[in-house]
Design a protein that fits this description.
heterodimer, A: 642 residues, mainly alpha, two-stranded antiparallel ribbon, globular, B: 504 residues, 19 helices, 2 strands, 1% strand
Chain lengths: 642, 504
């Protein structure tokens, strides 16, 4: 199957083209089934390729499939080529696998939407771009996918563009991501300048052999990290992700939780030898940004009331964990957490979507409660996801989080403490959410009229096509930990470190060696601490929200996300939103945050320069004359006389 | 005295090598003379003759390509014209753009009931001037080409006589253009004063052989400054761009398309001829000046484009920002001007010119169609709901805008990548970074037009745009080319890469 690796992006691309041509004729739900089938076909190919690669010895586990010579110009030679290796196939497997389940779910969720087939058009294009991103053999192919997923994300966030907030959120995502893209492009040029190639094998090879100067490696790694920070929503560029929840829920699950946002983590893993060859401070920067993002976002999640916003901040926080792992040299753990996170976070988002669906588009958790009686399957699967993210053994999240914390402790104890506090907060806010939505008191009855329900308003369980993906994902969230069990006495040795053995050829150069450290010798104590922090978080939330022993602590400051968004707006944009809205109509086209500020800055200065454009020929001649004088001054005085 | 000079040796004229120019001139003459003497030709024939002429001239240049790569470069007509792949590439660019513009102009004129041979003849004359600029090996000849192009453009800008804005734009362009031409001519005079020649080959020889005396070089330096003013005006580089927004907006849209493509390509070819080929010994003098012009054009063009509300004016500013990008390539070429092995600067500029010419004609063609059905309205509001009325037209516009923004898989990405890569290869990191920031700012502008087209609902009263065949053909060809190069740029980049030796 390795020779036909190109089929993985080809299937969803075909789906995209078919829906583009016949989408309207296929309609609801056939277009959705077509899209889902295409992703399933990709998944099958990926599984086949996985088994092919699996049978090979570790050092040969790599296959490059060149499709055509893309940019062949003397010194610059770039192929349109795909690289099948353990890392890219692991990514492909969960992108297409989880992607298929979410497509299936979306057939039910989007039922009745007037733009049904257009939705699946974008979804298939997204899957195509995403697998191109992970399969790329060089930075340019990856960048192609990188831009593609960004574009699809933008289209899908503003899918319901008639809502003002959705259109704004889409633009915010687009522009924030451009900041990151800029880093990736510079890294690409730098790489070409330094080693004359942008292919990963050449770049990583140069890093491993020491041919890449330390300063160059640092620059490339840090520039790529800028891209990763934008795409994976880390501090200070995380702003767009919570707003991205304006998109339909399957989009949040697929793009803004399971796949696209992990692209940054993937990219850093892909160039791990470069990171290893760079200055000592580079991984530390990554680890600290990851840890601070994890803590910061978790603290905000504690006070959110929108069911999807909690999960959004939780995603930012979990991505922070992955970067913490990367900065600590725990690449396997980062991939491991990426996979398990894809399972349980997709599950949680789809569960939330199911609740929203059953509650007639209500997203405020303060108007929910007791829903488990009406939506038992959704509730059951959501609870599995909750236990997984809270780090309760033996659910998947426990194993991956534990592995990260193990490596972090071996690296830096301060980061470990932040990690443990974040784990406690995670358990706390997820328990809060579960209680507010599924337990507690039913608060929706008093709001029934607002939903336009005549007579009795009751939440209803979702159709089977939405529940099947939930059940499958719940199964994966339970057993996902099996792919990388730690080495304990009672774990059969054949089942230990599966993921590490599999990805060894990709990460062996950069993976930190923690054998012999205190942390490695005391794994049981660490597990105890991790489990305890999770259970304490759950217990605290239980006491506060279920038993009501304490008053909930939800300061306004946290609800507003530490006022970070507002601060950026105020700092970049001056006297605040109201003043902006009054200025001109296109100010309202560019609302919020940094976007606002930049636009205002540009507009302000442009307005001044614009005044020179009077339409008066005499003024124009004057401006040309000034240019002439300056040029003559340069040539005659500076270059000629002096 | 005079008796001694009676033996005048006529230079050899290589008729075949001149055939693209001859084809363009004959086409223009045919339209002017025969067109004036015969009754009105059947519908569209004027346009097809012009398009055919451009196609033939382009094909002839293409045929001569292998001649150059096999037999090497040479000069024509006593060293007045250069015969090299550089000239061919510019000729092909100009002919391709003229071809597309002629198709777009066709129903523009017929619908207004103003069909006639004059406009097409002027297009062909302007194209001839452009080709001469791109092949000139003598500063005087280059000036002749420049004036041939410019005079035709002044008249074209004012050709929609009934619209006051068109007349105003023609006059403005003429006054300011004359101003700039004077500088250019004075620059030639000063360079002549310093080198005793206007022939590019002899200018180089003079620098190679002469020992610099005090003062003499200052003369040449002042000349270079004035040459840059004249050419900077033509390419619309800041601060010599002031005419651009008014003239682009006021001129008929098809003429704007012509100015943005042919005008720009010819002027940039002249910049390369004058600075990189003729004046490599002064590269450290003029490169910083180009650097500043590039940065100013990038920043001013991109930033001011964002605040416009008229699409034609937006595209005018965007063309200034594109000029900045091309200047980035010129700056890169300046690093190894005159060296035995040239860098990627020159090929990247030539590629950019070809790709941008096609793109910009395509964009303006769509604007022309939208404007026509709205009674000449080119504001952003006129584009609202275009996707609902004409989805394929909106798609074509989106392709062109994405390409102008430099999105991968379009020709615009290849163009921008080329110049930035050339700058990085010469270690001009600062300008590469500024160019990318400008691209990010400008991306917002294109996004705004796309949002209007796709997401905003139009007035119910807006008439559905008619897409006549010849314009549709031009738009389709341009869009197909944009995507083709984006997906499969190898062959073009290969061809551009072969532009490494120059006749002089």
């Amino acid at each position: 199957m390795l020779e036909v690796i190109w089929l993985i992006p080809a299937f969803p691309l075909a789906g995209f083209l078919l829906i583009l041509l016949f989408g309207r004729r296929l309609g609801d739900p056939k277009a959705g089934y077509l899209a889902a089938t295409m992703v399933l076909a990709s998944f099958v190919v990926a599984v086949g390729a996985f088994f092919d690669l699996r049978t090979m010895p570790a050092e040969e586990r790599q296959h490059v499939e060149v499709l055509f010579s893309w940019v062949p110009v003397s010194s610059l030679h770039i192929d349109m080529a795909f690289l099948a290796d353990p890392l890219s196939l692991t990514m492909c497997l969960f992108v297409t696998g989880v992607g298929f389940l979410i497509h299936l779910y979306a057939v039910g969720y989007m039922h009745g939407d007037p733009k049904f087939s257009k939705f699946f058009l974008y979804m298939n294009l997204f899957v195509t771009s995403m697998v191109v991103l992970v399969l790329g053999e060089n930075l340019l192919v990856t960048f192609l996918g990188w831009e593609g997923v960004g574009t699809c994300s933008y289209f899908l966030i503003s899918f319901w563009h008639t809502r003002d907030s959705a259109a704004t959120a889409g633009k915010k995502a687009f522009i924030t991501n451009r900041v990151g893209d800029w880093g990736v492009m510079l890294a690409m040029f730098w790489s070409f300048q330094a080693i004359g190639s942008v292919s990963y094998s050449a770049l990583n090879g140069a890093a491993e052999s020491g041919a890449l100067a330390r300063s160059t490696a640092t620059a490339i790694a840090m520039l790529l990290f800028v891209g990763a920070v934008g795409k994976s929503a880390q501090l200070p560029l995380y702003l767009w992700l919570p707003d991205a929840m304006e998109g339909p829920t399957p989009v949040s699950a697929l793009i803004h939780a399971a796949t696209m946002v992990t692209a940054g983590v993937f990219l850093m893993t892909r160039v791990s030898p470069v990171l290893e060859a760079s200055a000592v401070w580079a991984p530390q920067v990554i680890a600290w940004i990851g840890a601070l993002t994890a803590l910061f976002a978790a603290s905000i999640a504690v006070a959110q009331n929108d069911i999807k916003k909690v999960l959004a901040y939780s995603t930012v926080s979990q991505l922070g964990y992955m970067f913490l792992a990367i900065g600590s040299g725990a690449y396997v753990a980062a991939i491991f957490h990426m996979v398990t996170h894809a399972f349980f976070k997709a599950l949680l988002f789809l569960g939330a979507g199911s609740v929203i669906h059953g509650m007639h588009h209500e997203q405020d958790m303060r108007r929910m409660g007791q829903i488990r009686r009406y939506m038992p399957i959704t509730a059951g699967t959501f609870i599995v996801g909750w236990l997984a993210i809270a780090g309760v053994p033996p659910f998947a999240g426990f194993w991956s989080k534990d592995e990260i914390l193990l490596f972090v402790l071996a690296d830096n104890i301060a980061l470990y403490v932040i990690g443990i506090v974040t784990a406690l907060l995670t358990a706390y806010y997820m328990t809060r959410q579960v209680i507010m939505v599924f337990f507690g008191e039913a608060k929706w009855e008093s709001h029934a009229e607002e939903h336009g329900a005549h007579g009795e308003f009751k939440p209803h369980e979702s159709p089977p096509i939405m529940l099947i993906p939930l059940v499958v994902l719940a199964g994966l969230a339970i057993v996902g930990g099996l792919i990388q069990l730690p080495s304990f006495g009672w774990v059969p040795s054949g089942a230990q470190h599966q993921l590490e053995n599999w990805t060894e050829p990709v990460i062996e150069f950069a993976e930190a060696d923690i054998a012999g450290t205190w942390a490695d010798g005391h794994k049981l104590i660490l597990i105890g601490i991790a489990v305890a922090s999770g259970l304490i978080g759950i217990a605290l939330a239980w006491l506060v929200y279920q038993r009501k022993r304490f008053r909930p602590v939800e300061p306004q400051l946290l609800e507003e996300g530490w006022k970070y968004d507002q601060t950026v707006s105020a700092f970049m944009g001056g006297p605040g939103r109201k003043a902006f809205e009054a200025v001109a109509w296109f100010d309202s086209a560019v609302v919020d945050g940094a976007v606002h500020g930049v636009a205002r800055l540009v507009r302000g200065s442009a307005g001044e320069i614009r005044k020179a454009q009077t339409g008066n020929v005499r003024n124009y001649a004057g401006i040309v004359g000034v240019g002439v004088v300056l040029l003559l001054a340069w040539f005659v005085i500076f270059r000629g006389v002096m | 005295m005079i008796a001694q000079d009676d033996v005048f040796l006529a230079p050899d004229v290589e008729w075949y090598h001149l055939s693209p120019i001859i084809a363009l001139v004959s086409g223009a003459l045919l339209l002017l003379v025969v067109g004036a003497l015969t009754p009105r030709w059947p519908r569209g024939l004027y346009a097809y003759v012009a398009a055919l002429t451009a196609a033939v001239a382009g094909a002839l240049a293409l045929l001569q390509w292998n001649d150059v790569t096999d037999n090497g470069v040479s000069t024509l007509v006593g060293g007045a014209l250069a015969f090299d792949t550089f000239a061919q590439m510019i000729t092909i660019t100009i002919c391709a753009a003229t071809f597309l513009v002629a198709l777009v102009t066709d129903d523009e004129l017929r619908r207004a009931g103003k069909d006639g041979p004059e406009v097409y003849a002027l297009f062909l004359i302007a194209a001839t001037g452009g080709v001469v600029m791109g092949s000139a090996n003598d500063l005087i000849l280059l000036f002749l080409g420049l004036e041939t192009l410019s005079l035709a453009l002044y008249v074209l800008a004012a050709s929609d006589r009934e619209r006051p804005t068109s007349r105003e734009s023609g006059i403005k362009y003429f006054v300011l253009g004359g101003f700039a031409s004077a500088f250019f001519l004075y620059g030639i005079a000063l360079v002549y004063g310093g080198t005793q020649s206007t022939n590019i080959g002899e200018i180089i020889t003079s620098f190679q052989t002469s020992v610099l005396l005090d003062g003499k070089d200052t003369l040449v330096l002042a000349g270079i400054a004035l040459l840059i003013v004249g050419l900077g005006f033509k390419v619309a580089a800041v601060p010599f761009h002031v005419w651009t927004p008014d003239v682009y907006q006021g001129a008929p849209t098809n003429v704007t398309a012509f100015m943005a493509s042919v005008g720009k390509a010819a002027a940039f070819a002249a910049i390369l001829r004058v600075l990189v080929i003729a004046l490599p010994f002064h590269r450290d003098d003029w490169r910083p000046a180009i650097w500043v012009l590039a940065v100013l054009s990038l920043v001013v063009g991109s930033v001011l484009a964002v605040v416009q509300t008229d699409v034609k004016r937006m595209l005018a500013y965007s063309s200034i920002s594109h000029a900045g990008f091309i200047l980035v390539g010129v700056e890169a070429a300046g690093h190894d001007a005159g060296e035995r092995v040239l860098g990627d600067g020159m090929p990247s500029v030539l590629t950019y010119l070809l790709l941008y010419s096609v793109l910009t004609v395509g964009s303006f063609a769509v604007v022309a169609l939208v404007a026509r059905s709205n009674g000449g309205d080119t504001s952003l509001d006129a584009f609202k709901g275009l996707a609902a009325r004409r989805p394929t037209l909106a798609l074509a516009l989106t392709i062109f805008l994405l390409a102008q923004a430099g999105v991968p898989l379009t020709s615009g990405f290849i163009a921008k990548w080329g110049v930035i890569q050339a700058a990085v290869a010469e270690q001009s990191y600062a300008i590469a970074i500024i160019a990318m920031v400008a691209a990010v700012i400008a991306a917002y502008l294109y996004l705004r037009i796309m949002v209007s087209t796709w997401l905003e609902a139009g007035d119910d009263s807006t008439v559905r745009e008619a897409v006549p065949m010849s314009t549709g053909l031009a738009i389709t060809a341009a869009a197909a080319f944009t995507i083709l190069i984006g997906v499969w740029p190898g062959w073009l980049l290969d061809a551009a890469q072969s532009v490494t030796t120059y006749a002089r």
